[in-house]
């Protein structure tokens, strides 16, 4: 097992490393090895934050886990997400693994050739193409001028063209018109059976390939009762983070005066320029999205807080993808376990979760003023 395997655990070489090591995953789970806790963290961060990077920092060299624990956490995480028995959870997990992988790929590609030549923990673009059997399907666009900085290929040849050509078959398989009109084949430059793409577009297609590989075979079937039983405490922790209720019709009104106490406390905390924890940020963003706010509205609403606009946009878009809001705020009981909810005024007797509480408050109010109405007046200069 080496650092590259741990960094890109979905590579074929990483699977072979796990197989050749002769490590028993059931034995690791029974022993509660570090890889098990890292796997739980991997899935939790995937579902809440859209990343699988360790809390202690970006890989490599900044994780509290060693290479073996980091690599073995990947197959265990796939078991955990299978046991959640939730298609949205699998989709979110696979997307987070892919997004984290491509962040690492971009850092690798930014490394200079000399560093790459002495480090086995970085990957070149040609290596990634070969991993997904795309070496013959993708090639630099001969009509594009060479870039200023080279990208080392598997053979060590530096190149950074402004564009690539990808055969139309792989292009259609890896991309989707749902990404936007610019991705539709009718709007692309097509010649000799190949589509011209920029490097960033190529990396987006590769991210889709990673996501598909991670999701392949999930959920696992017939894991065995003993393994499922041993992992149940970890699975229960993950389930408690996710509300089972879905909200097909959000209140669609933003009335801060009617927010549940826990959400008001988080907003006031952020307004004091205090950094929110990952669980606090997730709970607040999921609540604001759940009441019908768009990412732009959430950014504006939190403009004078410690919350970063880019981070807000990433997390709210993560929660409002084309499948809708899949993860409402955790229940009051779970928020209490995280020290977020303090059951002020015994409000748990009113509702078991923040959105239910807010819905009841809005329904009972004689008059409701929508924050967005005042914002529209500010924007038009009428207020």
Q: Could you please describe the fold and organization of this structure?
A:
This protein has a 4-stranded antiparallel β-sheet. The protein has about 375 residues and is α+β, with helices and mostly antiparallel strands. The chain starts with a helix and ends with a helix. A hairpin with a 2-residue loop joins strand 5 and strand 6. It has 18 helices and 6 strands. It folds into 3 domains: about 110 residues, no CATH class; about 100 residues, no CATH class; about 140 residues, no CATH class. The radius of gyration is 23 Å and the shape is globular.
Q: Tell me the strand percentage band.
A: 5-15%
Number of strands: 6
Number of domains: 3
SS content category: alpha+beta
Q: Specify the oligomeric state.
A: single chain
Major sheet strand order: 1-4-6-5
How would you spell out the order of helices and strands? HHHHHHHHEEEEHEEHHHHHHHHH
Write down the overall mean pLDDT.
83
What integer value in Å does the Rg equal? 23 Å
Instruction: Give a quick account of the main beta sheet: strands, pairing sense, barrel closure.
Output: 4 strands, antiparallel
> Outline, from the CA principal axes?
globular
N- and C-termini, Cα separation: 63 Å
- The helicity comes to 40-55%
Poorly predicted runs of 5 or more residues: 58-62, 146-160, 244-248
In DSSP terms (H or I, runs of 4 or more residues), the helix count works out at 18
